[in-house]
Design a protein that fits this description.
Radius of gyration: 29 Å
Number of strands: 0
Helix content: 55-70%
CATH superfamily of the largest domain: Ankyrin repeat-containing domain
CATH class of the largest domain: Mainly Alpha
Structural class: mainly alpha
Number of helices: 18
Strand content: under 5%
Distance between the termini: 102 Å
Largest sheet: none
Number of domains: 3
């Protein structure tokens, strides 16, 4: 009985300690929620300086790093294509490169929404055309993801970088995978490397074959993409055979794809085709039938001219029928 009476004070003290910790946690949570609501109120009212001050004082976010707070009215106007609102907000002094927590700018939003007019206003106001989010996404990537060739052309005119040396998300690969051939055509016209090889994706041609985007495949091949370059040892023909697309397989073979190429598992394209499928029959037929002299000559001439000079073929002093033949037209 005496032992129980002696243990009660200790148990009560322990209970008080837990209660105190819980109280402190709840108070801290309440303060954070209150600050978040207060910051949001200042953003809605347009007082972003006060919101930034709160962020700097309580969250340790430097005020010089753009706007701390989440989507601003500028983001909303850009994403919804509201030109008049966008002009009004900019005239009121809003920072054209206002950032969200994820480093998204209004220009990102305008391009993702295919709002060319809004993108032009932002660029004319000095928006950073190569701004990147925390995921490395640029406005040009958003334009290609949406399929906005007009936005892509506008961004490139203002100095957007079409390709990056690092492994940032690639506008070219995005356009190829989503079948946005018009965006791809714009990028090609600005001199991109159509054989850009990313370790985790491969080449744009390989990505287009995996996604079975035949219009993009045509654009890339016409622009001189290497029909043998894919992802590691996996060629575009491997991808096409695996996805059972006779039209794509025919197109790749026409551009000189090697039917005997082997991947890292020593498999040829025919080994990846579904048994008794049309693709398997086509590959077996092509294996048994030699390429025509016309096709071999065309491939040889195109290789000799080189990818960088293929666009000059129409200027050659040759009959139109021969120029069309060299351009697969």
């Amino acid at each position: 009985m005496t032992v129980i009476e002696e243990s009660r004070p200790f148990a009560q003290q322990l209970s008080n300690v837990y209660f105190t910790i819980l109280s402190l946690f709840c108070f801290k949570l309440f303060v954070k929620i209150s600050l978040a609501i207060l910051s949001h109120f200042y953003i809605v009212k347009g007082n972003r300086k006060e919101a930034a001050r709160i962020a700097a004082e309580f969250y340790g976010v430097p005020q010089g790093q753009g706007s701390w707070a989440d989507r601003s009215p500028l983001h909303e106007a850009a994403s919804q294509g509201r030109l008049l609102s966008l002009r009004t907000l900019l005239s009121q002094g809003y920072n054209v490169d206002t950032l969200t927590i994820d480093q998204v700018t209004p220009l990102h939003e305008a391009c993702l929404g295919d709002h060319v007019g809004c993108a032009r206003i932002l660029l004319e106001a000095g928006a950073n055309v190569n701004a990147t989010t925390i995921d490395g996404v640029t406005p040009l990537f958003n334009a290609c993801s949406r399929g906005s060739a007009a936005c892509a052309e506008l961004l490139l005119q203002y100095g957007a970088k079409a390709q990056w040396e690092s492994c940032l998300p690639s506008p070219t690969h995005e356009a190829a995978s989503r079948g946005h051939s018009e965006c791809l055509e714009v990028l090609i016209s600005w001199g991109i490397d159509v054989d850009q090889d990313l370790p985790h994706l491969g080449t744009p041609l390989y990505v287009a074959c995996v996604s079975q985007q035949i219009h993009c495949i045509r654009k890339l091949l016409y622009a001189g993409a290497n029909v043998q370059k894919g992802k590691n040892l996996q060629t575009p023909l491997h991808a096409a055979a695996q996805h059972s697309s006779t039209e794509i397989v025919n197109l790749l073979l026409e551009f000189g794809a090697d039917i005997n190429a082997k991947n890292s598992d020593f498999e040829r394209p025919v080994d990846l085709a579904a048994p008794s499928s049309l693709v398997e029959r086509l590959l077996l037929f092509h294996e048994a039938t030699p390429s025509s002299l016309c096709q071999l000559c065309r491939l040889c001439i195109r290789n000799y001219i080189g990818r960088a000079r293929l666009h000059l073929v129409p200027q050659l002093q040759l009959p139109t029928i021969l120029k069309n033949f060299l351009q697969y037209r």
